Amino acid sequence: MPTTRVLLLGRAVMLLMLLLVILCSTGVRGQQRQQQQQLEEEDDPGTSVCPRIIRREQWDAERSTNVTYQLKPVAKVIIHHTTGDRCTTVASCKEMVLGVQSFHQKQNGWSDIGYNFLIGPAQVFEGIGWHRVGAHLRGHNANSIGIAFLGNFDVLRPTARSLEALDRLLECGVALGELTPDYRLHGASQLQSTNSPGRLLYARVKEHSHWTRPAD
């Protein structure tokens, strides 16, 4: 009888060790998949014209409570900043975008995130996307696309990759027929009393060939 108990105990220990090996292996593979996905999101160049855009479902967006569609093509693009810290990874940028949506919906009572697109250090995030009227600048929402850079650009300098992402997104909009070829680019502070998009980002916006001095 003691021998039988020892054998049973030995088998139980072996099964437990095998289970632990399987669980550890599964966890490692899952972590590797997450790391690979993050690398793909950081490095995927998108198409020849359009940048890779991280879609709403990829940053776990809440559903919109109301949708107003926009006539296209749109002739005006307005640049904002979200203020706050700069995100440094795809994961932290996703959390920041979700936080912006939560603030807009729960604190402001809006139907969705107010921006059409948001830009991190190197990535473009879909806000409400093309076709839909945003809530980014009173009096200008119906006839403009609002793009927000993640961070406070009164103190942060926009990265070269974020500015490249903006250029490619705008080129993409023209190629898709979402923006007019002669669209006008503004900083939000040109059209309303605000410090957005921050002085350091606005200085770079003014270098863009589509930047327009007169406020509409």
From TrEMBL:
An individual GO BP term: innate immune response
Presence of the UniProt keyword Methyltransferase in the record: no
GO function term, MF aspect, one: zinc ion binding
Residue ranges constituting the N-acetylmuramoyl-L-alanine amidase domain according to the UniProt record: 64-198
Keywords: Immunity, Innate immunity
Highest rank taxon of the organism: Eukaryota
SMART domains: Ami_2, PGRP
Domain spans labelled Peptidoglycan recognition protein family: 51-192
Family, as annotated: Belongs to the N-acetylmuramoyl-L-alanine amidase 2 family.
Protein name: Uncharacterized protein
Source organism: Anopheles albimanus
